[in-house]
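Customer escalation, tier 2.

The customer says the design service returned an amino acid string that "doesn't look like it belongs to this structure." They asked us to rerun it and document both sides in this ticket. The original structure tokens are below, unchanged.
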């Protein structure tokens, strides 16, 4: 009890600061670990109702948008947003996942050579960093230690097997696995979405 009290106080203070900045909205019955949010100011985070979000949510710059729906669970994973990451309703994201909508650096050495120096000065030129929105649709399930890279849409009710690296879109109700993730099978009638 005594050891967790300072952490709880920190969480409340950080939550108050983030909430007051207007950047964060959280639905009723949702549990969010506020101290795991980074650089929310100038960005937008929306979480629906009845969700549990234990993730580190990191905004790289300004103008980023992370939305998480209702009744969704995001375990102790990392969500790194430059542009837009959208996680739907009734989604499960296990622990250890990394969801990122950009590459962080350019493939061209000349365009990334100053990145560390710029960071240490608290600035960075994002012009040459490829990025594209990530969408995880309703009722998808992302297994533990999965990586989801820029531009990927995980379709409704799809399942991503543990430790996969997803570089391409996953169709609705598909089961994918591996690095890079490939289609294993479409989910059968017994797995069909409840209407
Ligand atoms: C390596 C990377 C930069 C390449 O990006 P890109 O040039 O846009 O690559 P593409 O998305 O066009 O993918 C090209 C092919 O490589 C595969 N591929 C790309 N990244 C892959 C990865 N991490 N693991 C396995 N395969 C990968 C893709 O599936 C694709 O194969 P396909 O055409 O058969 O489907 C990017 O995929 C990546 O890994 N980004 C994350 C960077 C990172 O770790 N940043 C952290 C901060 S330091």
């Amino acid at each position: 009890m005594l050891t967790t009290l300072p952490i709880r106080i920190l969480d409340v203070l950080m939550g108050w600061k983030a909430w007051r900045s207007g950047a964060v909205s959280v639905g009723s019955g949702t549990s969010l670990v506020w101290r795991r949010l980074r650089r929310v100011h100038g960005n937008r985070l929306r979480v629906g109702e009845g969700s549990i979000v234990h993730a580190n949510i990191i905004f790289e710059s300004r103008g980023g948008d992370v939305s998480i729906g209702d009744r969704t669970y995001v375990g102790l994973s990392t969500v790194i947003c430059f542009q837009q990451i959208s996680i739907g309703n009734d989604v499960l994201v296990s622990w250890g996942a990394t969801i990122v909508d950009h590459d962080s650096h350019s493939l061209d050495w000349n365009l990334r050579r100053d990145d560390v120096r710029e960071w240490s000065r608290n600035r960075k030129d994002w012009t040459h960093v490829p990025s594209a929105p990530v969408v995880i649709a309703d009722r998808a399930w992302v297994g533990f230690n999965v990586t989801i890279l820029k531009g990927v849409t995980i379709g409704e009710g799809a399942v991503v097997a543990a430790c996969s690296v997803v570089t391409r879109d996953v169709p609705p109700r598909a089961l994918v696995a591996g690095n890079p993730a490939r289609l294993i099978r479409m989910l059968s009638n017994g797995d069909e979405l409840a209407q």
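Tier 2 assessment: The sequence is consistent with the input. The mean pLDDT is 92. The chain has one domain: 5-194. Sent an explanation to the customer and offered a walkthrough call.
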